[in-house]
Specification:
Layout: H1 2-40, H2 45-64, H3 68-79
């Protein structure tokens, strides 16, 4: 019985991951289309990408808050 339960859970995980991968592909295509649309309207898509990265970094920095010291220690250790 436990083996059947494990098989069903595995099938469910595989199905969920497959669906998420399809959604990720779809979102990736939509992002590319949006950058292309902005470029076609005369905006510099490279600058837009940089702005998005800066926003992501700022969000990341605010999220780590109390974990900052440990994060810096790990990062320094890995980069040595």
């Amino acid at each position: 019985m436990d083996n059947n339960h494990s098989k069903e859970k595995l099938k469910l995980y595989a199905s969920n991951i497959s669906q998420l991968e399809k959604q990720k592909k779809h979102l990736s295509d939509e992002i590319k289309e949006t950058y292309n649309a902005a470029k076609n309207d005369g905006f510099d898509d490279k600058i837009i990408r940089k702005i998005i990265k800066i926003e992501d970094v700022a969000k990341f920095k605010s999220e780590i808050g109390a974990e900052r010291d440990l994060f810096d220690f790990y990062l320094d250790t890995i980069n040595d």
